[in-house]
């Protein structure tokens, strides 16, 4: 009976690629592990998989009775809904420690780095295993995506070192140029429904008993959102009501200007100003230097709601 490696709901590139890479590592160690996903792949992720000839993992949203490895998260809200009925064999993550608990010891690799794939590279080293060329390519892309091509405050020297190592294995001469290609794909929003955009890179969090949804869209130039901003705001309002959420936030990140416009819809009208120390007009504010959801958005929100 196979085991499964699964990333978070509404998966980004790291969630998909980390599942693929961890499955390869475990397969090399003699375990039968299959990578799966909890949602549709994003255009950026599809670009990465196609670029390095990797199949899209199968969709699997129920894990009851299965044995699973959790990657790129450790929050129950982002896990399969029936995770309590599964056996969690291990967690590989680079976020804060969440609320997944187990009744038996498990393998945990949790590090304060920019990407889960940086950690999995260290796991390959630990076990003395070789990283296949195409696996190295998709891992390289996941790190470039999560670190916003090294611009994110979550990026570490280890991430940069690993990117160079993976680029050498994958035969990529210019990793940063590949990163720009990826973000051009991310920036192509024309024709995509507003709801799909809000949910493209979206996570729910439990903060002091409040359900808070945070989505992020990254672009080379935020002007691509100008014509559709009202539609995005309308979807935030709808999703807040539908999900019985306390707060919905959309982070529109401009990677060239190295900052984000944050749009907030909340039961607490002063939440955003308390959290971010900025003046919000009609629920919107530009936050200079803010690129990372996990480091610059979630912690101040949790503090403001505590």
UniProtKB/TrEMBL annotation:
Its cofactor is Mn(2+). Residues 179-305 form the DHHA2 domain. It catalyses: diphosphate + H2O = 2 phosphate + H(+). One of its GO terms (molecular function) is inorganic diphosphate phosphatase activity. Pfam families: DHH, DHHA2. This is inorganic diphosphatase. The keyword Transmembrane does not apply. Its EC number is 3.6.1.1. GO terms for cellular component: cytoplasm. InterPro entries: DDH_dom, DHH_sf, DHHA2, DHHA2_dom_sf. It comes from the Bacteria. Keywords: Hydrolase, Manganese, Metal-binding. NCBIfam families: PRK05427.1.
């Amino acid at each position: 009976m196979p085991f499964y490696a699964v990333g978070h709901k509404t998966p980004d590139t790291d969630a998909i690629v980390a599942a693929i890479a961890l499955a390869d590592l475990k397969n090399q160690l003699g375990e039968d592990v299959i990578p799966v996903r909890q949602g549709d792949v994003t255009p950026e992720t599809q670009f990465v998989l196609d670029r390095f000839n990797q199949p899209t993992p199968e969709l699997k949203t129920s894990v009851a009775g299965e044995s699973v490895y959790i990657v790129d998260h450790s929050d129950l809200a982002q896990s399969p809904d029936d995770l309590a009925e599964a056996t969690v064999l291990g967690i590989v993550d680079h976020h804060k420690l969440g609320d997944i608990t187990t009744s038996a010891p498990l393998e945990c690799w949790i590090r304060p780095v920019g990407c889960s794939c940086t950690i999995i590279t260290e796991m390959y080293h630990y076990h003395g295993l070789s990283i296949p060329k195409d696996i190295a390519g998709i891992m390289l892309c996941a790190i470039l995506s999560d670190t916003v091509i090294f611009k994110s405050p979550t990026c570490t020297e280890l991430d940069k070192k690993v990117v160079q190592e993976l680029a050498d294995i994958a035969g990529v001469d210019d990793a940063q140029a590949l990163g720009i290609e990826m973000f051009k794909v991310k920036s192509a929003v024309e024709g995509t429904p507003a709801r799909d955009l809000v949910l493209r890179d979206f996570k729910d969090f439990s903060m002091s008993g409040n359900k808070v949804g945070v989505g992020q869209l990254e672009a080379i130039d935020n002007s691509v959102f100008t014509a559709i901003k009202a539609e995005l705001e309308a979807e935030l309002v709808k999703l807040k009501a539908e999900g019985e959420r306390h707060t919905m936030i959309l982070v529109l990140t401009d990677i060239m200007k190295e900052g984000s416009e944050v749009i907030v819809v909340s039961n607490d009208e002063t939440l955003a100003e308390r959290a971010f120390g900025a003046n919000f007009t009609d629920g919107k504010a530009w936050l200079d230097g803010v690129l990372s959801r996990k480091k610059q958005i979630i912690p101040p929100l949790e503090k403001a709601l505590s």
